[in-house]
């Protein structure tokens, strides 16, 4: 007598082996990416640079040769970045002595508040000195490990410059001959698959470029608003802190709060508790402006991800590749979702009340087949 597995078991088995194949494919992609991480980073940066600079190249190419437009756009981007770093370094060097004096006074105010303030606990100068001595001893005991980490960091710096050089090299060709390269790639595919790849590539690039340009515009706006706020409140190192706020805009969820905390610490040490509170409130207000005005206005519907998906993507990216993973996780998920949404065939949508209904009666045909299988056994 033939024994037939129940329908639900057969369905679950079919879904399970497909999920195993998908998980194996994703694991293989992550493993391959980890082996060529430098190449992946360089290619990702090249796409970012291309997305940001392409509008300038398109405008300039109307009046000059496209190669010259590409060179001028890249040179302008490099000069802007170098000028920003120079201004930040000049601000730090010019205000360092005043900040050191203010920081010393601010630390004294903080310790006095911890020792004599209204808090339910007390922290004395002796306890702080003991903690400092413990930290100093820990540094001395782990000097060898710290030196090894510093040497590894020096190697990372070399890798960073290598990735940047490769990214700029690829960006030149993407900007100057990107359409020709994409057409060549499509021509290598079978004719029946070209339209699908063309549709997927267009949807992916539209989403990635929109996200990248939108993030850059929002980050620059956040930095400018933070600079104005910190300048009005007379917080030292307003330019470097504004740049820090701008950089924080590239890291979803955690970047802006981290920049806000650092700015509040500087304001607290230099100008007191009221200044720190005003800095925190001002930067939080900038974050609200970003989330409710700038992002919907700048990005529109190009990147439509639920906040839960963003949080999960950032967490997975952080666990996988640290800060770099947190930065690239959201645009990658947005691109995958855009391609999936463009290629899928939608069924008629369900209403919320239909989704909440209890399970209805079992279909009669399925019930008869299950009864027959039981009789055979």
Automatic annotation (TrEMBL):
Biological processes, Gene Ontology terms: transmembrane transport
Family of this protein: Belongs to the autoinducer-2 exporter (AI-2E) (TC 2.A.86) family.
Keywords, sorted A to Z: Cell membrane, Membrane, Transmembrane, Transmembrane helix, Transport
Transmembrane regions: 12-32, 38-57, 69-90, 150-176, 216-235, 241-266, 273-289, 309-340
Organism name: Cellulomonas chitinilytica
InterPro entries hit by this protein: AI-2E-like
Compartments (UniProt record): Cell membrane
Stretch list, region Disordered: 349-377
Membrane topology: Multi-pass membrane protein
Name of the molecule in the record: AI-2E family transporter
Keyword Transport: yes
Record Pfam families: AI-2E_transport
GO cellular component: plasma membrane
């Amino acid at each position: 007598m033939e024994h037939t597995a129940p329908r639900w078991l057969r369905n679950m088995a079919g879904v399970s082996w497909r999920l195993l194949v998908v998980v194996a494919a994703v694991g293989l992609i992550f493993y391959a990416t980890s082996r060529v991480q430098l190449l992946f980073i360089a290619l990702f940066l090249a796409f970012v640079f291309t997305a940001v600079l392409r509008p300038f190249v398109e405008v300039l190419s109307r009046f000059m040769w496209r190669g010259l437009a590409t060179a001028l756009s890249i040179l302008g981007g490099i000069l802007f970045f170098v000028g920003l770093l120079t201004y930040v370094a000049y601000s730090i060097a010019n205000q360092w002595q005043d900040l050191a004096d203010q920081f010393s006074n601010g630390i004294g105010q903080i310790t006095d508040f911890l020792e004599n303030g209204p808090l339910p606990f007390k922290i004395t100068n002796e306890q702080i000195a003991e903690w400092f001595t413990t930290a100093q001893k820990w540094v001395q005991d782990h000097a060898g490990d710290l030196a090894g980490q510093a040497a590894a960091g020096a190697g990372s710096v070399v890798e960073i410059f290598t990735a940047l050089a490769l990214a700029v090299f690829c960006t030149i060709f993407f900007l100057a001959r990107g359409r020709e390269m994409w057409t060549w790639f499509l021509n290598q595919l079978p004719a029946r698959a070209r339209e699908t790849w063309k549709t997927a590539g267009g949807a992916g690039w539209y989403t990635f470029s929109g996200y990248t340009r939108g993030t850059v515009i929002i980050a620059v706006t956040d930095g400018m608003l933070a600079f104005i706020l910190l300048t009005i409140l007379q917080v030292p190192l307003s330019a470097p802190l504004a740049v820090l706020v701008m950089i924080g805009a590239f890291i979803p969820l955690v970047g802006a709060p981290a920049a806000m905390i650092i700015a509040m610490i500087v304001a607290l040490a230099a100008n007191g508790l009221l200044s720190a509170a005003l800095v925190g409130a001002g930067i939080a207000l900038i974050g609200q402006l970003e989330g409710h005005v700038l992002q919907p206005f700048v990005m529109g519907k190009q990147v439509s991800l639920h906040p839960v998906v963003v949080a999960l993507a950032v967490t997975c990216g952080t666990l996988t590749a640290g800060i770099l993973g947190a930065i690239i996780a959201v645009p990658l998920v947005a691109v995958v979702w855009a391609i999936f949404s463009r290629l899928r065939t939608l069924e008629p949508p369900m209403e919320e009340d239909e989704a909440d209904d209890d399970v209805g009666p079992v279909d009669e045909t399925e019930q008869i087949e299950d009864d027959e299988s039981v009789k055979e056994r």
